[in-house]
Specification:
With 101 residues, the protein is mainly α. The chain contains four helices and two strands. α2 crosses α3. The chain is globular and about 40 Å long.
């Protein structure tokens, strides 16, 4: 859907960055799938229960790269484009929900 919206295909997807600068550091569905698979296989996965994680944080932790060998990181591209961090706080890239009683 995103490729279609930007008028590109898998073969020329990098052209999409001319229309949307954030797309320059985008990731394939394979990348996200690899992150999910690594998280599911992690024997300590329950320590992340209730968390919200950027794919890039999981990729860094589990040593994952995309199918083309890149290490996409939306937060890096966001800062390059907008000149400020994607999230507040130094290095804060994942969140945990807290249940209130």
């Amino acid at each position: 859907m995103v490729l279609r919206h930007l008028g590109v295909s898998e073969e020329n997807w990098t052209e999409g960055a001319k229309k949307d600068k954030l797309f320059a550091d985008s990731e394939t569905p394979f990348f996200v799938g690899r992150c999910i698979a690594a998280l599911a296989a992690d024997p300590e996965r329950m320590r992340k229960s209730g968390g919200i994680f950027g794919s890039w944080t999981l990729a860094e932790e589990y040593g994952i790269v995309d199918v083309d060998g890149r290490s996409p990181r939306l937060a890096r591209q966001w800062e390059k484009v907008f000149g400020k961090p994607l999230v507040d706080g130094p290095g804060k890239t994942s969140y945990y929900w807290r249940l209130a009683s």
